[in-house]
Specification:
With 210 residues, the protein is mostly helical. The protein contains ten helices and three strands, in the order ααβαβαβαααααα.
Length: 210
Protein backbone atom coordinates (compact mmCIF):
# COMPACT_ATOMS: atom_id res chain seq x y z
CA UNK A 1 0.00 0.00 0.00
CA UNK A 2 1.19 3.52 -0.79
CA UNK A 3 -0.11 6.27 1.48
CA UNK A 4 1.82 8.97 3.33
CA UNK A 5 -0.56 8.84 6.29
CA UNK A 6 -0.47 5.90 8.69
CA UNK A 7 -4.16 5.80 9.62
CA UNK A 8 -5.40 4.49 6.20
CA UNK A 9 -2.65 1.85 6.23
CA UNK A 10 -3.73 0.66 9.67
CA UNK A 11 -7.33 0.59 8.48
CA UNK A 12 -6.54 -1.53 5.42
CA UNK A 13 -4.37 -3.84 7.52
CA UNK A 14 -7.28 -4.40 9.91
CA UNK A 15 -9.69 -5.05 7.03
CA UNK A 16 -7.41 -7.51 5.23
CA UNK A 17 -6.25 -9.47 8.28
CA UNK A 18 -9.69 -11.10 8.48
CA UNK A 19 -9.19 -12.67 5.03
CA UNK A 20 -6.69 -15.51 4.73
CA UNK A 21 -6.27 -15.05 0.97
CA UNK A 22 -5.12 -11.43 1.29
CA UNK A 23 -1.88 -10.14 2.79
CA UNK A 24 -0.63 -6.59 3.25
CA UNK A 25 2.95 -7.32 2.24
CA UNK A 26 4.42 -3.82 2.49
CA UNK A 27 3.50 -0.16 2.83
CA UNK A 28 5.32 3.06 2.09
CA UNK A 29 4.79 6.80 1.72
CA UNK A 30 5.80 6.79 -1.97
CA UNK A 31 5.90 4.37 -4.88
CA UNK A 32 9.70 4.65 -5.00
CA UNK A 33 9.99 3.61 -1.35
CA UNK A 34 7.63 0.71 -1.88
CA UNK A 35 9.57 -0.61 -4.86
CA UNK A 36 12.79 -0.47 -2.83
CA UNK A 37 11.13 -2.82 -0.37
CA UNK A 38 9.68 -5.19 -2.97
CA UNK A 39 8.23 -5.39 -6.45
CA UNK A 40 6.81 -8.87 -5.88
CA UNK A 41 3.26 -7.61 -5.55
CA UNK A 42 -0.04 -8.45 -7.20
CA UNK A 43 -1.75 -5.14 -6.53
CA UNK A 44 -1.02 -1.83 -4.82
CA UNK A 45 -3.65 0.16 -2.96
CA UNK A 46 -2.69 3.71 -3.95
CA UNK A 47 -3.57 7.04 -2.39
CA UNK A 48 -4.07 9.80 -4.97
CA UNK A 49 -2.30 12.66 -3.20
CA UNK A 50 1.27 12.02 -2.12
CA UNK A 51 3.66 14.57 -0.68
CA UNK A 52 6.53 13.66 -3.02
CA UNK A 53 4.91 15.59 -5.86
CA UNK A 54 4.22 12.59 -8.09
CA UNK A 55 0.98 12.42 -10.05
CA UNK A 56 -1.49 9.52 -9.96
CA UNK A 57 -0.83 8.90 -13.63
CA UNK A 58 2.93 8.62 -13.04
CA UNK A 59 2.46 6.25 -10.12
CA UNK A 60 -0.04 3.98 -11.85
CA UNK A 61 2.14 3.81 -14.95
CA UNK A 62 5.32 3.13 -12.96
CA UNK A 63 3.72 0.27 -11.06
CA UNK A 64 2.35 -1.12 -14.31
CA UNK A 65 5.90 -1.26 -15.66
CA UNK A 66 6.63 -3.74 -12.86
CA UNK A 67 3.54 -5.77 -13.68
CA UNK A 68 1.67 -4.46 -10.63
CA UNK A 69 -1.96 -3.40 -10.85
CA UNK A 70 -3.41 -0.60 -8.76
CA UNK A 71 -6.57 0.17 -6.87
CA UNK A 72 -6.97 3.86 -6.10
CA UNK A 73 -8.11 4.39 -2.50
CA UNK A 74 -9.44 7.89 -2.05
CA UNK A 75 -11.89 10.15 -0.29
CA UNK A 76 -13.06 11.15 -3.78
CA UNK A 77 -12.94 14.93 -3.54
CA UNK A 78 -10.44 15.37 -6.40
CA UNK A 79 -12.08 14.24 -9.67
CA UNK A 80 -9.19 15.62 -11.73
CA UNK A 81 -6.78 13.28 -9.95
CA UNK A 82 -9.20 10.39 -10.36
CA UNK A 83 -9.34 11.07 -14.11
CA UNK A 84 -5.56 11.07 -14.24
CA UNK A 85 -5.42 7.64 -12.61
CA UNK A 86 -8.25 6.32 -14.78
CA UNK A 87 -6.48 7.41 -17.96
CA UNK A 88 -3.29 5.73 -16.76
CA UNK A 89 -5.09 2.40 -16.45
CA UNK A 90 -5.80 1.90 -12.77
CA UNK A 91 -7.82 -1.27 -12.21
CA UNK A 92 -10.26 0.34 -9.83
CA UNK A 93 -11.32 3.26 -7.69
CA UNK A 94 -12.61 2.67 -4.17
CA UNK A 95 -13.75 5.32 -1.72
CA UNK A 96 -12.30 5.28 1.79
CA UNK A 97 -15.89 5.47 2.99
CA UNK A 98 -16.87 2.30 1.09
CA UNK A 99 -18.07 -0.79 3.01
CA UNK A 100 -15.36 -3.27 3.94
CA UNK A 101 -16.78 -5.89 1.59
CA UNK A 102 -16.50 -3.46 -1.33
CA UNK A 103 -12.85 -2.76 -0.53
CA UNK A 104 -12.04 -6.46 -0.16
CA UNK A 105 -13.88 -7.29 -3.37
CA UNK A 106 -11.98 -4.63 -5.29
CA UNK A 107 -8.61 -5.84 -4.03
CA UNK A 108 -9.43 -9.45 -4.86
CA UNK A 109 -10.58 -8.58 -8.37
CA UNK A 110 -7.54 -6.40 -9.03
CA UNK A 111 -5.29 -9.17 -7.73
CA UNK A 112 -6.72 -11.38 -10.48
CA UNK A 113 -5.98 -8.65 -13.01
CA UNK A 114 -9.64 -7.76 -13.39
CA UNK A 115 -10.81 -4.18 -13.65
CA UNK A 116 -13.19 -2.96 -10.97
CA UNK A 117 -15.91 -0.87 -12.55
CA UNK A 118 -17.50 1.40 -9.94
CA UNK A 119 -19.64 4.51 -9.88
CA UNK A 120 -16.58 6.42 -8.65
CA UNK A 121 -14.61 5.42 -11.73
CA UNK A 122 -17.53 6.31 -13.98
CA UNK A 123 -18.00 9.67 -12.29
CA UNK A 124 -14.30 10.40 -12.69
CA UNK A 125 -14.39 10.02 -16.46
CA UNK A 126 -17.88 11.47 -16.98
CA UNK A 127 -17.50 14.75 -18.83
CA UNK A 128 -13.69 14.51 -18.97
CA UNK A 129 -12.64 17.36 -21.30
CA UNK A 130 -9.57 15.38 -22.37
CA UNK A 131 -11.58 12.55 -23.88
CA UNK A 132 -11.56 12.90 -27.66
CA UNK A 133 -15.01 12.17 -29.01
CA UNK A 134 -15.42 9.25 -31.40
CA UNK A 135 -18.08 9.44 -34.07
CA UNK A 136 -19.94 6.17 -34.64
CA UNK A 137 -22.67 5.46 -37.13
CA UNK A 138 -26.02 4.29 -35.68
CA UNK A 139 -25.18 0.72 -36.68
CA UNK A 140 -21.77 0.84 -34.98
CA UNK A 141 -23.35 2.39 -31.88
CA UNK A 142 -25.81 -0.49 -31.74
CA UNK A 143 -23.06 -3.08 -32.13
CA UNK A 144 -21.01 -1.41 -29.40
CA UNK A 145 -23.85 -1.23 -26.89
CA UNK A 146 -25.04 -4.79 -27.49
CA UNK A 147 -21.57 -6.31 -27.42
CA UNK A 148 -20.28 -4.22 -24.50
CA UNK A 149 -23.39 -5.12 -22.51
CA UNK A 150 -22.41 -8.78 -22.59
CA UNK A 151 -23.45 -9.98 -26.02
CA UNK A 152 -21.42 -12.20 -28.31
CA UNK A 153 -20.75 -11.86 -32.01
CA UNK A 154 -23.44 -14.48 -32.59
CA UNK A 155 -26.08 -12.91 -30.34
CA UNK A 156 -25.41 -9.40 -31.65
CA UNK A 157 -25.64 -10.70 -35.21
CA UNK A 158 -28.96 -12.33 -34.45
CA UNK A 159 -30.27 -9.11 -32.93
CA UNK A 160 -29.22 -7.04 -35.94
CA UNK A 161 -29.90 -9.64 -38.62
CA UNK A 162 -26.31 -9.91 -39.81
CA UNK A 163 -23.67 -12.66 -39.80
CA UNK A 164 -21.22 -13.00 -36.86
CA UNK A 165 -18.35 -12.24 -39.25
CA UNK A 166 -20.02 -8.94 -40.06
CA UNK A 167 -20.29 -8.14 -36.36
CA UNK A 168 -16.58 -8.89 -35.95
CA UNK A 169 -15.82 -6.53 -38.82
CA UNK A 170 -17.91 -3.83 -37.15
CA UNK A 171 -16.00 -4.39 -33.89
CA UNK A 172 -12.70 -4.00 -35.75
CA UNK A 173 -13.90 -0.64 -37.09
CA UNK A 174 -14.99 0.47 -33.62
CA UNK A 175 -11.67 -0.52 -32.06
CA UNK A 176 -9.76 1.26 -34.80
CA UNK A 177 -11.75 4.45 -34.33
CA UNK A 178 -11.00 4.48 -30.62
CA UNK A 179 -7.34 3.62 -31.22
CA UNK A 180 -7.08 6.54 -33.64
CA UNK A 181 -8.50 8.79 -30.89
CA UNK A 182 -5.85 7.58 -28.42
CA UNK A 183 -8.41 5.55 -26.46
CA UNK A 184 -7.50 1.88 -27.06
CA UNK A 185 -10.01 -0.93 -26.51
CA UNK A 186 -7.96 -4.07 -25.95
CA UNK A 187 -10.60 -5.90 -23.95
CA UNK A 188 -14.36 -6.22 -23.84
CA UNK A 189 -14.37 -4.24 -20.59
CA UNK A 190 -12.48 -1.46 -22.42
CA UNK A 191 -15.35 -1.36 -24.91
CA UNK A 192 -17.82 -1.09 -22.05
CA UNK A 193 -15.79 1.79 -20.59
CA UNK A 194 -15.76 3.64 -23.91
CA UNK A 195 -19.51 3.15 -24.28
CA UNK A 196 -20.04 4.65 -20.81
CA UNK A 197 -17.59 7.48 -21.44
CA UNK A 198 -19.32 8.48 -24.67
CA UNK A 199 -22.84 8.10 -23.33
CA UNK A 200 -23.87 5.05 -25.34
CA UNK A 201 -24.45 3.13 -22.10
CA UNK A 202 -25.53 4.50 -18.69
CA UNK A 203 -23.11 4.89 -15.81
CA UNK A 204 -23.15 1.86 -13.48
CA UNK A 205 -25.40 2.28 -10.48
CA UNK A 206 -24.40 1.63 -6.90
CA UNK A 207 -26.28 -1.37 -5.47
CA UNK A 208 -28.92 -0.43 -2.95
CA UNK A 209 -27.86 -0.70 0.64
CA UNK A 210 -24.26 0.49 0.10
Amino acid sequence: MVDDHRAPVWGIERILEAHSDLDLVASAATVSELLVQTSDLDVVILDLRLNDGTTPRENVARLAEHGIGTVVYTSGEHPDLLRSAARAGTLGVVLKSAPEEAIVGAVRAAGRGQEVLTTEWAAAIDGDPNLDAVELSPQLQRVLTLYASGGTSVSVGQELGVAPDTVNEYLKRIRQKYADAGRPTRTKLDLFKRAVEDGWLPMPQRPRGD
